[in-house]
Design brief:
Distance between the termini: 24 Å
Structural class: alpha/beta
Number of strands: 15
Length: 363
């Protein structure tokens, strides 16, 4: 009788696609190192979409964890709604934890990799396997300035869960601290383009002029006013259902990009990217050395760290939400080409480096 194949569980927070995409980039490298292991992903994203990212088998489970930061729109956090959601989560914590422990016991898991679901870390500790965090922050740190004395137990509960983990691999664009008992810096994990920029431009019917990709985020724009952009001589490629017109060429794309085209392909084909400063977009701009024209993202504790570190790593500019809606974009797009810093050298194979460390730490 053969022993069951060893397995690793990747648990992804319910907040934002960027956490999932960087987790999948690491998972791909883990699979190359451990091709005989079963790999599981728990996330709120459609399992079919996740499976479609790979040419090998990945077991998918639809599972939500902590609420993350609830938002009014692409730009601003809804702090009262976020705190209310965490109060509800705290009431459900023990029952959710029991179900997560049952899941871990039902498979031959050797460890959990969390980005950055606190409950999954705690469950691993409860069943006696190591949990590693891979993220640029932890949720207790994000919530800390929003929670007063009456909600201090929310932060304390998340922190207690993280403290049962083994170690956090701290990605860039966050604080040099962690709630995990051990932590260490990790390189800038990022998805990479798989198509040449010239091929992407040809596929999209763009001419040889300068291109600005505009992607504020995946939130509803139903309440946005119409925006008439004046981007100078930049051709615009907008991603998402955005009410944007332009003086020049403007190519609207849905979040479901044309077949054979991934978002990093689009970033690599751009002369500048305009969007909100989140880890996924920022990391892909750095990886492909594409200037980032950042739009204000108030209230999120990660943002000042991300903006400052990006400015030290590469070309960028910053603008307010009001400037974005006003449509006077040319100064921001041109400014991103010369603002910030000369491009810093980055780790050439960061996803593999992080995967190797995961394999080492999980034994």
């Amino acid at each position: 009788m053969t022993s069951p194949t060893a397995a690793i569980h990747f648990a992804v927070t319910s907040h934002g696609l960027g956490h999932l995409t960087r987790t999948l980039a690491v998972l791909r490298s883990v699979q190359a190192l451990l091709p005989t292991h079963d790999l599981y992903v728990s996330s709120t994203v459609d399992p079919a979409w996740i499976r479609n990212q790979f040419d090998f088998e990945v077991h998918c489970r639809h599972q939500d964890y902590e609420p993350g930061a609830l938002q009014h729109d692409c730009f601003e956090v809804d702090v009262p709604a976020t705190i209310d959601a965490y109060r509800q989560f705290a009431q459900e914590h023990d029952a959710r934890l029991e179900r997560e422990c049952d899941f871990l016991r039902s498979h031959p898991f050797v460890g959990v990799v969390s980005d950055i679901a606190a409950l999954a870390v705690r469950a691993a500790g409860e069943v006696g396997i190591p949990a590693l965090g891979v993220s640029n922050f932890t949720w207790d740190w994000i919530l800390e300035p929003w929670c007063g004395d009456e909600d201090a137990e929310v932060v304390a509960g998340l922190a207690a869960d993280y403290r049962t983990g083994a170690r956090q691999l701290r990605l860039p664009f966050g604080p040099a601290r962690s709630t995990f008992p051990e932590h260490e810096p990790a390189p800038l994990v990022a998805r990479r383009a798989t198509r040449r920029p010239a091929d992407v431009r040809r596929l999209l019917g763009l001419d040889s002029g300068r291109v600005a990709v505009v992607c504020p985020g995946g939130w509803s724009t139903d309440e946005w006013p119409a925006i008439h952009a004046r981007p100078g001589d930049f051709q615009l490629v907008t991603v998402g259902d955005l009410p944007i017109t332009s003086d020049g060429q403007c190519l609207p794309l849905s979040h479901q990009l044309p077949d054979g085209l991934n978002f990093p392909d689009l970033v690599a084909a751009a002369d500048v990217v305009r969007g909100t400063p989140g880890y996924g977009l920022a990391s892909e701009c750095v990886a492909h050395r594409v200037p980032f024209a950042m739009i204000e993202r108030p209230g999120f504790r990660e943002t000042p760290y991300l903006v400052a570190e990006f400015e030290a790593m590469g070309r960028s500019s910053s603008s307010t939400i009001a400037q974005f809606f006003a449509g006077e974009w040319e100064p921001m797009l041109e400014g991103a080409l010369i603002g910030g810093s000369e491009w810093a050298d980055v780790e050439p194979e960061p996803n593999r480096r992080v995967a190797e460390r995961i394999v080492e730490l999980l034994g």
